[in-house]
Amino acid sequence: MMKLLVITRAPWLNDNGTGSTLTDFFSDFSDIEIYGLCLREAPTVTALCKKNYYMSEGEIVNALLHKGYVGKVTGSSIANIADQEREIATYNKAKKYNFAVFRFLREALWGTGVWKNANLRQYLEEVNPDVIFFPDFPCVYAHKVLKYVKEKTNAKVAIFHADDCYTLKQFSLSVLYWLFRFYQRKWVRSSVNLSTLHYVISDVQKKDYDKAFGVDNKILTKFGDFSGVPRLKKDFGDPLQIVYTGNIGLNRWKSLKIIVDALRSINEKEVKAELIIYTANEITNNIRKVLEVSGVSKIMGKAPASEMSAIQEAADILVHVESFDIKNRLAVRQSFSTKIVDYFKRGRAILAVGPSEVASIKHLIDNECAIVAKEEDELIIKLNKVLENNELLNSYAIKAFECGKKYHNREEMLKMLYNDISSK
């Protein structure tokens, strides 16, 4: 039986974007044994991995100070929630205060190489993978781990790019940022050169990376079952329920504010529509002040992953937003949000607010499958049209479903991925 080793920086959990995407990719591969290599001390809760190997910065520090050992093997499912919560708190604090310094310290810890030990070598010898699946993360140490694993196993490497970790189409006034960016570019290219299979997440990224690396990248996104016909909504809400589910970071909350401001105007005489926001992000007083307006919008906090499908299906319109400021716009220019494919499956109209050059917004515009706006006045006009004629919402919903069927079809994507991985 073929063996696949998946390297992840964050734990493989089905309630985060990376975890749910990996589960989509590999859940049907019954004749391939899957093993995990996670670069954080936090739980993986997936039955897909037969075994998992963990190593983290905390273990590296302990090894350097107290001669401890880095790395351990677990079974297919563990759930040390305390470790997970402690690690999340540490990373959130670092991002809030001085992420650049934290990033260099983290890279320095991994650069010591103490993780290259008998524990890891024994695990790699036991697994003896035929293929290594490596998502390209915005760090360098993961690439160093890939290089080591490749050297020890000589397995075929499949690299998957989901964010822009290479081009210079970014904005920052920080010298540390650009020093790290050039250092990172060297390692991304090194990993590309190690790889036999090359995947990207969007047309925008494919165009950039085909040219940069001289390889033919294949587009691989989260996918879904688009057989049959969409389950369209028969009775629309009064007021209309406009629902956002996702991250409001990277100034996406400012794009949500455009929707709130548009609804203020639309609801001036009567409440015709309201925005409901589900997000796991911290809500500051400033953000709550502008996004939670009586008779216009509500913030519901984090919804359990088990309830997300029902929440999205109950909506009249589903919302996707991206940032307009130059730094964040360029940061996500190549990226494609995993939740858009979920939206396509729901049989609901999609409302998108964001710049047209961002891959996710561009995809919606090119396929004419969403209500897309860049500013408040444009949004008011477009929302008033669907408020006057709710049947337009089902027209958009059908287009969204057809876009999913054409570009994100489960059967076709799985066939491509399986054939690539299983080929000699």
Q: Which term fits the overall shape? A: globular
SS element count, helices = 17
Mean pLDDT: 92
The end-to-end distance, rounded to whole angstroms, is: 13 Å
Strand element count: 14
Per the CATH scheme, the topology name of the largest domain is: Rossmann fold
| CATH superfamily caption of the largest domain | Glycogen Phosphorylase B
CATH architecture of the largest domain: 3-Layer(aba) Sandwich
The biggest beta sheet is recorded as:
8 strands, mixed
> Domains counted in the coordinates: how many?
2
Query: Strands across the major sheet, in which order?
Result: 4-3-2-1-5-6-7-8
Q: Structural class of the helices, strands and pairings? A: alpha/beta
Question: What is the helix content?
Answer: 40-55%
At the first level of CATH, the class of the largest domain is: Alpha Beta
Radius of gyration: 22 Å
Strand content range: 15-25%
Low-confidence runs (pLDDT<50, min 5 residues)?
A: none
